[in-house]
Design goal:
globular, alpha+beta, 3 strands
């Protein structure tokens, strides 16, 4: 049940974003090949971005590092793993 809810929420998020968050990429997103990055401070979400799978793999290490420096954590929902 939890997985179904998470998958449906992820599909909604990807549908709202439509395009990859990297302006140079601009790929039209498909939930099976997208990833949602959520910056969190405690239990509160500070920022949520959706990327295509290729961009997500490329930018994840730098985003994790920057968020860690700011005292935030990164939560990732990857459509390839749902």
């Amino acid at each position: 049940m939890k997985e179904t809810i998470q998958r449906d929420a992820f599909k909604f998020s990807v549908g709202r974003a439509i395009f990859c968050s990297i302006p140079e990429c601009g790929v039209i997103l498909d939930w099976k090949r997208a990833a949602e990055f959520s910056a969190c401070k405690g239990a509160q979400y500070v920022s949520i971005k959706v990327f295509c799978a290729e961009c997500a793999d490329r930018v994840r290490p730098s985003i994790e590092s920057k968020l860690s420096d700011l005292g935030l954590r990164l939560e990732v929902v990857d459509g390839r793993k749902l």
